[in-house]
Write a structure and sequence with these properties.
heterodimer, A: 316 residues, mainly alpha, MetI-like fold, 0% strand, disordered N terminus, B: 288 residues, 16 helices, globular
Chain lengths: 316, 288
């Protein structure tokens, strides 16, 4: 109100967007508002996103340790990353985690999304709500619950499995089973997210296509194979990549459940960054490892970008 | 009765399997859903179990004696009231700041043509690809230089604006018709007034979606509070609970489940109230 009350006599001048020479009020004033709109946001992005990116790159070529002088040591940190057996192990573990996590979570999500999308399932809405619930639980809390369920002495799930004659022992102390266990926790927590994305993709497929396929005599499998799969291709590509990126960043439940053990069998790249950077204070080394993670993520994001934009071209 | 009622509807070609089919399907899904819910069920029931039952063998699902002991114990073992407050201030603060700053920037990027706007958008979208874990060390150094470690500033300010939110809101603002703001501009309204009285009220669904997404992510985050708070008093529920699993050996499951339940309840309540929007929020944030 007050803004227009103090206004000088109004004269009509079309705004820039309508092809006029300039905005109605002073061009300078409008420009000032625009700058005012952008300043807080850009300050935060520059300080806490862009500057840290440059800063991390610089640190990665030094032996910074949090105190004392930092010396430029060239590529030494990167050489260490690709030669140190412990670090190579952490990278291998991250790949193993990804290979276990991504297909399991994505296939589970797809199967459940297909089930939830089927008009033949009674109480679909209730199931959708139920199956979505794990997503609101944090990975840390999910880890506590699974730890109790799988406890070798008092775990309910362990006890039930024993009833079926399966003895899994203390999974978190087992160098072979610890990794699948931390993956299980992440799959449980995250599948709902991918499921909902799949569901949104499925609902975008026009029902007329299914009807046409049915008219042509296509059975359920053929309709799935020839209608659902091709039209869900974009969504699947997207889900696969976000799942892979999430897997590369595995940390929370591993920190809670195993701390990277037993015998480093669940040590991942982000666990290693946390340990090197914030526990051992090897800032230079941790920054170099961060950059390896950054580049891996960047490559995946670019692949996603190419896949999605190609899909859009196909659709258009 | 049922057979009689169904008889006129069933067509001759319908086999019995087709009629039972949906119910078999239902039972199978019920089994899957129960298995999926098991960890949540175990949190709820264990939270109310006395210690003896928590560590009993054979284990049981339901408590025989319901008790609130675990809840009193968690408030004794951790400054839990403070942690709850911290979680609300942190997740709420980040959400509020991000909504304000992101929408201001998104408005400019969606509505104002100025030199360099495309490049600015490109830079913002590109920064979406940077995982925060990869820049955590310089962010920490900066926060430490400002003297913000163990303060709400340190927890909130670095996340007070984010590229995803800007991009998400920009896409939404683009979908709003421009006629209204052009009319307002002709009437001499300032950009801020157009933003506040025309664009924002029409963007409530998008703001709610982004708000839910931001709140849930921050409430549940572990690494961030772990790095920026070293004092127990400044942690969040999520980071505080991890202190219970020390290397001491015996894990106090009852207390842990009580704490977990408290951590989940606010989000569960939010979920119940805005369930449809909550799920849509996930679908749309995932699709962008």
């Amino acid at each position: 109100m007050s803004a227009s009350a103090t206004e000088a006599p109004r004269r009509y001048r079309p705004p820039a967007q309508l092809g006029g020479r300039g905005p109605i009020r002073g061009k300078a004033k409008r420009r000032l508002t625009i700058i005012g709109f952008l300043v807080p946001t850009m300050t935060i992005l520059v300080l806490f996103v862009f500057w840290p990116m440059i800063s991390a790159l610089r640190l990665s070529f030094t032996d910074a340790s949090g105190f004392g002088r930092e010396e430029f040591i060239g590529l030494d940190n990167y050489v260490e990353i690709f030669t140190d057996p412990g670090i190579l192990r952490a990278m291998g573990n991250t790949v193993l985690y990804t290979v276990l996590f991504t297909p399991t979570a994505v296939i589970l999500a797809l199967v459940l999304a297909l089930a939830l999308n089927s008009p033949r399932l009674p109480f679909r809405g209730v199931f959708r709500t139920w199956l979505f619930l794990p997503f609101i639980v944090s990975l840390a809390v999910a880890a506590f619950a699974w730890q109790y369920l799988l406890d070798p002495q008092v775990g309910l799930l362990n006890y039930w499995l024993q009833g079926f004659g399966v003895s899994i022992g203390n999974v978190l102390q087992d160098p072979v089973l610890a990794m699948p266990t931390v993956v299980l926790v992440a799959v449980w927590k995250n599948f709902a997210f991918y499921m909902i994305v799949f569901l949104a993709g499925l609902q975008e497929i026009p029902t007329s296509l299914y009807e046409a396929a049915r008219m042509d005599g296509a059975g359920p499998w053929s309709r799935f194979r020839n209608v659902t799969i091709p039209l869900l291709g974009n969504t699947t590509g997207f889900v696969l990549i976000i799942a892979t990126i999430a897997a590369l960043q595995a940390f929370d439940q591993i920190y809670v459940l195993t701390g990277g053990g037993p015998y480093q069998s669940t040590q991942t790249v982000v666990m290693q960054i946390y340990q090197s950077g914030f526990k051992d204070l090897e800032l230079g080394f941790a920054s170099a490892l961060s950059y390896v993670l950054l580049i891996a993520t960047l490559i995946l994001s670019l692949v996603q970008f190419v896949v999605t934009s190609r899909g859009e071209k196909d659709a258009g | 009765m049922a057979a009689v009622a169904l008889a006129p509807r069933s067509r001759p070609r319908r086999s019995p399997l087709r009629r039972v089919g949906p119910w078999l399907f239902f039972v199978a899904m019920l089994a899957v859903a129960l298995l999926v819910l098991l960890p949540i069920i175990i949190i709820v029931f264990t939270a109310f179990k006395p210690v003896a039952e928590v560590n009993a063998f054979p284990p049981s699902l339901l408590p025989t004696d319901w008790t609130l002991d675990n809840f009193t114990r968690i408030f004794n073992e951790l400054p839990f009231g403070r942690l709850i407050l911290n979680s609300f201030v942190f997740a709420g603060g980040v959400t509020l700041c991000a909504l304000v700053f992101d929408s201001l920037a998104a408005y400019v990027l969606a509505r104002v043509d100025f030199r360099g706007s495309r490049i600015l958008l490109l830079v913002i979208v590109a920064s979406l690809m940077i995982p925060f874990q990869a820049t955590l060390i310089p962010i920490y150094q900066l926060v430490a230089d400002f003297g913000w470690v163990n303060t709400f500033w340190g927890l909130i300010i670095p996340r007070a604006a984010d590229a995803f939110g800007i991009f998400f809101l920009r896409q939404f603002f683009l979908s709003l018709p421009r006629d209204l703001d052009n009319a307002a501009r002709i009437d001499g309204a300032s950009e801020f007034r157009i933003f506040r009285s025309i664009v924002l009220p029409n963007a409530v669904p998008a703001l709610l979606t982004l708000g839910i997404y931001t709140f849930v992510n921050n409430w549940n985050d572990l690494l961030w509070p772990l790095v920026f708070t070293t004092e127990q008093e400044m942690g969040t529920i999520t980071s505080g609970l991890t202190l219970l699993t020390g290397p001491s050996g015996i894990i106090p499951y009852g207390v842990m489940m009580a704490g977990s339940l408290i951590a989940v309840v606010p989000l569960a309540i939010m979920f119940l109230f805005v369930q449809r929007r909550f799920i849509e929020s996930v679908a749309s944030t995932g699709l962008k």
